């Protein structure tokens, strides 16, 4: 793409000497600048990109997009654009640089505290069954078909997001499903995406190390439904909201947005559970397009909510209930989301990503309910820890959830990061009485050892939940990331036991 083509949208542009030169790269990171780059100076939360302008000029940047022109040397020969908001400019330029890939896709954004990943995978499964090859961007990875890219963020930065969409389109995607984090919404990372559907799963305490309070957290989520549709007025946006959730009841949408509620009662898409087991759930669903019975091979009511959100999304895209039913019946599951690990000890072992008190409670309630249907003589054993350098206020809440719905708890480390693991554990033990220690609550800071102790303590028919890390194949201690997988630890121990 020629520089003139990329920057033609700016009437305030000061042209330099490189009008017809090819743009080799668009970036907001000075470390990635090369000769022929266009550099967008973003005032970040930790670093101001304006401070690197001389560096990027020296590296060969042919255009600068800035909020503050005083950082640009008077002898700079490249193009210059002064904007009011560099983040918005980066969104617009990135979309144009990669040939507006989102315009060619049916884009679905999913936000909420819990259930985003599972809902995204379920939507992908239905769309693929329908014949729409779909790309997914989320917590676990970015993928389309057999092609997988690793990722560090639930929702990537603007440039990576647009580049990935371009790759999805080139592979033949018809749709893209995004997990949309509150960070991404507050930082305008998805403002350039013309979403057709937005899904709200639920909201509980999380990320209060970033947001000032839960209300600010909620308002960030609400941007997907109230503000983003206004940025793309030509799109017909559909809001799909779990109105059984207290925050779901509060969601406000922009004028002209079609609204569908889902849940157990008084909803447009209303379900009731018929039968549950560790192998899955049969449920009945009433919709504006008809009613039917469904089976999803995942245990727990929370997974039914995820499945109903996926069905609702698919129906708005024109997919039949029968296609949804077929796709869900042979759904292969989600890595680290109530992932069951088969074994010859006849113990029900699950690995799950639950890392908030509400998520932990939901998963444990699901396992407890199914367990009671199967046997009257079993124990529910939970292994969990709390993340370091994150909201410390949820640590005792997670411990309370674990205690209330488990028979035995092994409290261990998660990703302590730069915090003292024992301090994190002490925070979680705040409301635990001394009499409970080494009776129904056991402290084992070594995560591998905690998992092994839990398995050793279990008998035939018992249920073990290993929570917090799910799909992650690493543990962060200090600033070092070392390989660690709950699933691998369980399988290795069972193999050698």
Describe it.
The protein has an eleven-stranded mixed sheet, with helices on both faces. It contains 15 helices and 23 strands. It has helices spanning 3-7, 53-59, 86-97, 116-130, 158-171, 182-186, 214-226, 228-231, 301-316, 321-329, 357-374, 395-405, 421-428, 447-457, 486-496, and strands spanning 25-27, 37-40, 63-66, 79-82, 106-111, 134-137, 142-144, 147-149, 175-179, 197-200, 238-242, 258-263, 269-277, 280-287, 290-296, 339-341, 348-352, 380-386, 408-413, 441-443, 463-467, 474-477, 480-483. Strand 7 and strand 8 (147-149) form a beta hairpin. It has three domains: 3-97, 3-Layer(aba) Sandwich (Udp-n-acetylmuramoylalanyl-d-glutamate--2,6- Diaminopimelate Ligase, Chain: A, domain 1), CATH 3.40.1390.10; 101-329, Mur-like, catalytic domain (UDP-N-acetylmuramoyl-L-alanine:D-glutamate ligase), CATH 3.40.1190.10; 339-496, Protein-Tyrosine Phosphatase, Chain A, CATH 3.90.190.20. With 497 residues, the chain is of the alpha/beta class. The mean pLDDT is 95.
């Amino acid at each position: 793409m020629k520089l003139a083509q990329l920057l033609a949208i700016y009437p305030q542009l000061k042209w330099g000497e490189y009008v017809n030169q090819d743009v080799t790269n668009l970036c907001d990171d000075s470390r990635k600048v090369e000769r022929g780059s266009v550099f967008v100076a973003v005032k970040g939360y930790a670093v101001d990109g304006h401070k690197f302008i001389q560096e990027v000029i020296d590296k060969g940047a042919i255009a600068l997009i800035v909020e503050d022109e005083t950082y640009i040397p008077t002898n700079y020969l490249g193009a210059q654009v002064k904007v009011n908001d560099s983040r918005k400019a980066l969104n617009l330029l990135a979309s144009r640089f990669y040939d507006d890939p989102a315009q060619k896709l049916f884009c679905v954004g999913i936000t909420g505290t819990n259930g985003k990943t599972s809902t995204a995978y379920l939507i992908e499964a239905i769309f693929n069954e329908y014949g729409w090859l779909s790309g997914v961007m989320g917590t676990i990875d970015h993928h389309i078909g057999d092609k997988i890219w690793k990722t560090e963020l639930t929702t990537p930065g603007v440039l990576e997001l647009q580049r990935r969409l371009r790759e999805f389109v080139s592979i033949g995607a018809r749709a893209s499903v995004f997990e949309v984090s509150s960070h991404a919404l507050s930082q305008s990372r998805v403002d350039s995406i013309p979403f057709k559907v937005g899904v709200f799963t639920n909201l509980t305490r999380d990320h209060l190390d970033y947001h000032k309070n839960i209300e600010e957290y909620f308002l960030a989520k609400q941007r997907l439904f109230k503000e983003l549709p206004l940025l793309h007025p030509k799109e017909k946006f559909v809001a799909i909201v779990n109105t059984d959730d207290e925050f779901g009841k509060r969601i406000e949408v922009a004028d002209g947005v079609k609204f569908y509620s889902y849940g157990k009662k008084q909803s447009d898409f209303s379900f009731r559970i018929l039968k549950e087991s560790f192998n899955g759930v049969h449920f009945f669903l009433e919709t504006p397009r008809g009613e039917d019975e469904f089976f999803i091979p995942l245990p727990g009511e929370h997974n039914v909510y995820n499945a109903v959100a996926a069905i609702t999304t698919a129906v708005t895209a024109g997919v039949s209930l029968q296609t949804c039913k077929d796709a869900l019946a042979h759904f292969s599951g989600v890595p680290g989301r109530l992932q069951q690990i088969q074994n010859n000890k006849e113990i029900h072992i699950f690995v799950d990503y639950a890392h908030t008190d509400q998520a932990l409670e939901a998963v444990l309630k699901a396992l407890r309910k199914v367990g009671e249907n199967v046997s009257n003589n079993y124990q529910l054993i939970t292994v969990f820890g709390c993340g370091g350098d994150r909201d410390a206020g949820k640590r005792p809440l997670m411990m309370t959830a674990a205690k209330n719905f488990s028979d035995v708890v092994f409290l261990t480390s998660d990703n302590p990061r730069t915090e003292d693991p024992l301090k994190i554990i002490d925070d979680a033990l705040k409301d635990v009485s001394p009499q409970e220690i080494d009776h129904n609550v056991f402290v084992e800071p070594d995560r591998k050892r905690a998992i092994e102790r839990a398995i050793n303590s279990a008998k035939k028919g018992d249920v073990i939940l290993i929570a917090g890390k799910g799909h992650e194949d690493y543990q962060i201690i200090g600033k070092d990331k070392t390989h660690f997988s709950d699933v691998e630890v369980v399988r290795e121990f069972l193999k050698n036991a």
